[in-house]
Amino acid sequence: MNLSPNIWTWVGAFLTLAIFSFLYKDNPFYKMAEHIFVGVANGYAVTFYWHNILMPVLFNPLFRGRLVLIIPLIIGALYFTRFIPKISWLVRIPIGITIGYYTGVAIPAGIEGSIIKQIQGTILTPHNFERWHAGPWGVVWSVILLVGVLCVLSYFYFSKEHKGILKVTSRIGIVFIMIGFGAAFGYTVMGRISLLIGRLQFLLGDWLGIIR
């Protein structure tokens, strides 16, 4: 289908307004746009996985003689047993393998990428206090980071009742936790606002030509 870009602009504007119509109330236009989005997303995903994963990684090597790939092919095909009531229990096999594999991959990656990096970022060395390297504010933020991490850890230390100094540090830890949650929430809101601004720029610029 060879349609002019102007037609696709009108299609995009109509679907955008249909999604925005949910701000008033649930309506058929919103449901139509929602179903189109889900259908297109799933169609794109199926096409992407077929041409970029299944064909080059599984079927093409299998047809060239790598018969060992029959094993993952059979395991993957077990997903479809979900639609056959008598043998639907077989779907547990590929689900279990997938969860076990990705858990095994995610745990070392999470430890290496998050926990160890956090520990390395928290450790204070003389290098942090070299004024000509970090500057005065670098020294201040290094100390704040160390204090924040220790206070947050003390808040989650439940082997001793929070009294005395432990009570003070745990209360300070709550402040740091709330700051972290607030920053994460603010980052999420900023992301959603950026999407809204992009849609408004499309409507007012590409579609109506009000802004450039």
Automatic annotation (TrEMBL):
Keywords: Membrane, Transmembrane, Transmembrane helix. The keyword Transmembrane helix applies. The chain crosses the membrane at residues 6-24, 36-57, 63-81, 93-116, 136-158, 170-187. It comes from the Bacteria. This is Uncharacterized protein. It comes from candidate division WOR-3 bacterium RBG_13_43_14. The lineage of its organism: Bacteria, Bacteria division WOR-3.
